[in-house]
Amino acid sequence: MVRLTSVSLLLSLLALGIVMYPVSALYDFEGIPLTVTAQGTVTGDVLMFGEYGLDKPPYELKFTLPSVPRYARVYTGIWGGTEKYTGWADITINNKKKARYLLNGDRDQNRDLYESGHGIYWIAYDPTDLLTRGDNLITVNTSKTDPGNKLDGRVYAILVAAVVDDPESGEQTQYWIAEGNENLHGEGWAGTNPTKHEDTNVTFTSAGLTGVTRANLSVLLLAGGKGQPDYVQFNGQYLGVPIRNMSGRNVTDIGDEISFDAGGGTGIPSRYADMEVFEVTSLVKETSTARFIRGFDLDGDGSIVTTGDAPEGEDYIHPVMAILTVTRPGSSPVTDLATESIRAENAFAGENAVLVAEIRSYGNQPAGPVPVTFAIDGKTMNTTQATIPASGITVVQVPWVAEAGSHTVSASVAAPADSKTDNNAASLPLTVGTPPDLSVSIGSPVHKGEAAVTVTKSPLSVLTVCGAVGVLLLMRFSRKRPPSTIPAAMLLLAVLLVVPGIIVSAGADTVTLEYTLPLTITNNGGSHAPAFTVSVYLDGEKIADKQIEAGLAAHATADIAIPVFIAPGTHELKVVADEAGIIKDSNRNNNIAQGRYDFPG
Prior knowledge:
Elements: H1 7-13, E1 18-20, E2 31-55, E3 59-65, E4 71-79, E5 87-93, E6 97-103, E7 113-116, E8 120-125, E9 134-142, E10 154-165, E11 171-182, E12 184-185, E13 199-204, E14 214-222, E15 231-234, E16 237-238, E17 244-246, E18 249-251, E19 258-259, E20 268-269, E21 273-279, E22 288-293, E23 316-329, E24 337-345, E25 352-361, E26 370-376, E27 379-386, E28 393-401, E29 405-413, E30 425-432, E31 438-442, E32 446-456, H2 462-477, H3 488-502, E33 509-523, E34 532-538, E35 541-548, E36 557-566, E37 569-577, E38 592-599
């Protein structure tokens, strides 16, 4: 291990005027994007402490703080075994308080944790009021030893990020803390109808660059495998020391089960967890983007090979945290508040709508509440006081009886001595009319021209072979996932069952190909549809959830493409817009398109 320095309900809440920045973290196999959940500027630094490497609970982190933190976040990763197993995890802070998290697998509805893939949990907790100057102790325990428990329950890591004042340092540090749980994976790891997820980004905005003396990007990856390449980019530049060169590309292995080695040096072994800190002073920009990449098709054969003497990428890897810090001289950070965005919910003619503004602090946080003003077509309709929390991010909501027509809704924040006023306001053009009417259509699948996976049919019973293959896959799975004990007799049985199944004529081969499935989503209604999800099913199995984060304007159309891996032939497709029924839709009958479609060979 490693140590490192329904509208009515909503309206009833509006009496408070302000709610904390929401984190939506329901289970998603494909992953939960990294999102900045805390930011600001401090005279001092962001200190990080951790224990890394898969181990049995109880799992502890001991660390020392020079002072009580202004803000802190504690993270821990738990291995579930599969997304079907359930259990619990406890986080105890300095033996004072225990926070219990129920781990409910693919039925998880807990917004305080992030779960993706086949049961990898990333838990985020605010321990600010429980941490002290001097020695601190974080303990994580799980249901691993409970009678009848199936959850694997081992712990990947504990990480604490603490924003600490240090007036004597003569330095101010601007910081962004991003958390999530992305599941970057190849097409062989996602069920009967495989998918793939190759890369993900997180962006850090409004950095102050005058006089920068140091900038660091800290990242944490879970479930990476030693010897399988993966990459981290920062503003387009690859980070880390190459391990080799292949086809003219420098190959890196950031998630190699050794922490603090990506920049050079031996590092420290940390099984299935990789903490790395990259010095990015020369690369940082006012808006910077970190990108995590599973691998590259280096030999041009159409797939990212993960085995053999020269693998090209990871089977799967989970970026769960990214922290950017920018340090410059000075002991008096300035105030810089921004209205990051504004949106309207339930904005239909004559109905009770909600205007929602997201306020972020990029500098020193104001000492008291600040006014946030909402306007319709330039006319003020509401001003409410907002207190910026220690995280530096808040969401302000106000009610509005929506009037039919085309409008511009806006929100602006004001603070004493705000150093940058050009980011104080945000606006949104909005059409208000009849409720949205989402409809879906499916285009003809397009073969991308490359074979992805070849599967050989077996003359044995399908169930028998699948069961045997499952045992062998479990062994392969255990190469990176925490291993399970497999009796030798079971292994022998699996081999005896599978080998005859693969000794058949070439004519029995079924080739799985990669296709692009074109979808068209239309809003036939008279009002803007807020953010929603498009769900795709192939032969009865969900293979994708596509987030339409910007929503869809009245009478607008969105074309999206979904990657599909399947054997050529005729297959059943079903596509559903807003399957959860979040949007008030005037006609839900056309939210579904389904039928049998030909996938050409």
